[in-house]
Design brief:
By secondary structure, the protein is mainly α. The protein has three domains: 69 residues, no CATH class; 271 residues, Rhopdopsin 7-helix transmembrane proteins; 83 residues, no CATH class. The protein is built from 16 helices and nine strands. The strands form four sheets. A three-stranded antiparallel beta sheet has the order 5-9-8, covered by helices on one side. InterPro entries: Extracellular_membr_CFEM_dom, Rhodopsin_dom_fungi, SAT4-like.
Length: 473
């Protein structure tokens, strides 16, 4: 691999830089650290230039010297010698050391914390621990939650590895790092790619499985299964391509110095672009699939606003995917991998964390609705049963002594139009049972005892989809 970067900072003289003065002993040590091939190239270029050997400013800014040394070093030195030469000249010329390792680690840690909190809230919305009666865990977990859990485990691993990558030097110029660090960074990056290519489609599949719990249309379900299949195909295909991007496999992290002529690798740049492009298409398909169903619904303003928030997060993920596509321009062909890969790394982690947040938002909404129903566009009665139903259930469990009217009618209070359910509750009629002793007991009932539609008419839930904001699975 030939390094084409400009050797702009050349240590041509025996004098110090105008920016960072060097003592004679320091300068001698720097020159001794430079490979003999690089030092020879510098000496030859200086002899043919108008710059004096003591004029460091002239030597460091002369484009002709830079071009000649660049050509000489790339043909006369190995890649490791090129890096040592570059590091020495940068130091002598006093150029600042670039360091964005904190961005890499912060993006991984902060994003992971937010995603994990969202995931925990999702699980809490599906699992409850009753304080009365039989002490058993009541859960409503399904395959979408299982797949989301597996994806979250992979994302935690990616986030932890991002901290290790930053500690090794991802976010610094490659010539400032030890060869061991470079190899380790590329090795961890290789496994990060594999985790990314499996976690991302798993999150989309989790979202699609949630659709199946919400919508009942057969045509819509067929579309969901098709998109699930596309995500599975994407994950399997690109995972295999990533694993075998180089033969032998270890060449993916050892070939950077060009020391192994047996390494054969794919066009990593084309591979990355293709993967990112298909990912954007799958993002659009996954998020756009329920839009026609939602368009048919009669949502109040508050619920429309909540739907907009959820889908805005989803489209933010798509925007991040597009941004990541742009930063892949140099991916695979970079000569300064530990610097150029930093942006690909943190945009990938941001994309994963935002995807988890998007997948968990409907469940988080349901959890908040239990405690702040009006905030979520619901009434208290919608979350814990209507006032009429609560009264009916209390009446049914209460012992009534003496002559009571056996026919009891319970009517829910009229609510504000902004609080109405998608399918309003009709008047509920309960009939009391009389025992042989003349004592009247209310019969026990549950939500299935009450009709949500008029008798003799088809269930309206079969005619139009139920909003994802109101599913209680």
């Amino acid at each position: 691999m030939l390094f084409f970067w400009s050797l702009l900072s050349l240590a041509i003289g025996l004098a110090a830089s105008q920016h960072t003065p060097q003592t004679g002993s320091n300068l001698a040590e720097l020159l001794q650290s430079m490979p003999s091939c690089g030092l020879q190239c510098l000496s030859t270029a200086i002899a043919a230039s108008p710059c004096l050997a003591t004029d460091t400013a002239c030597s460091c800014s002369n484009a002709t010297i830079t071009a000649e040394v660049n050509e000489c070093v790339t043909t006369s030195c190995t890649i490791r010698e090129q890096l040592r030469t570059k590091n020495t000249t940068e130091t002598i010329c006093g150029h600042p050391v670039r360091d964005e390792t904190r961005i890499v680690s912060y993006a991984g840690v902060i994003g992971c914390v937010i995603a994990f909190v969202a995931f925990v809230l999702r699980m809490l919305s599906k699992v409850s621990f009753p304080c009365e009666g039989a002490m058993r865990v009541v859960n409503n977990l399904w395959w979408d939650d299982a797949i989301a859990s597996f994806a979250m485990a992979e994302i935690i691993a990616i986030s932890v590895l991002s901290v290790e990558l930053a500690n090794l030097g991802l976010g610094k110029d490659i010539w400032t790092l030890l060869p061991y660090n470079i190899t380790q960074i590329l090795k961890i990056y290789y496994f990060d790619e594999d985790l990314y290519l499996t976690a991302l489609p798993l999150i989309k599949i989790s979202i699609l499985l949630t659709y199946l719990r919400v919508f009942t249309s057969k045509k819509f379900k067929i579309g969901v299964y098709i998109v699930i299949g596309l995500n599975l195909a994407y994950g399997i295909a690109f995972l295999l391509v990533s694993i075998f991007q180089c033969l032998p496999i270890h060449c993916a992290w050892t070939r950077w110095d060009g020391s192994d002529p047996t390494c054969k690798c794919n066009d990593i740049n084309a591979q990355g672009w293709t993967s990112a492009a298909f990912n954007v298409i799958l993002d659009v398909l996954t998020l756009g699939l329920p839009l026609p169903m939602l368009w048919k619904m009669s949502l109040n303003k508050r619920k429309k606003f909540l739907v907009m928030i959820m889908f805005s997060v989803g489209f933010f993920v798509t925007i991040v995917s597009i941004i990541r596509l742009q930063v892949l321009v140099q991916f695979g062909h970079s000569q300064n991998t530990t610097w150029d890969y930093r942006s690909v790394g943190y945009w990938s982690t941001i994309e994963l964390h935002a995807s988890v947040l998007c997948a968990c938002m409907p469940a988080i909404r349901n959890l908040i609705r239990k405690f702040q129903p009006r905030l979520m566009g619901s009434s208290v009665e919608e979350s814990f049963g209507t006032k009429g139903i609560s009264a009916g259930r209390s009446r049914n469990s209460e012992l009534e002594i003496g002559p009571k009217t056996p026919q009891v009618q319970v009517f829910p209070r009229k609510r504000d139009p902004d609080e109405q359910d998608f399918i309003p509750l009709n008047d509920v009629h309960g009939v009391a049972e009389t025992t042989s002793t003349g004592q009247t007991y209310g019969h026990r009932s549950n939500m299935s005892d009450f009709q949500f539609f008029e008798e003799g008419k088809p269930d309206p839930t079969l005619e139009r989809p139920v909003s994802p904001l109101d599913y209680r699975r």
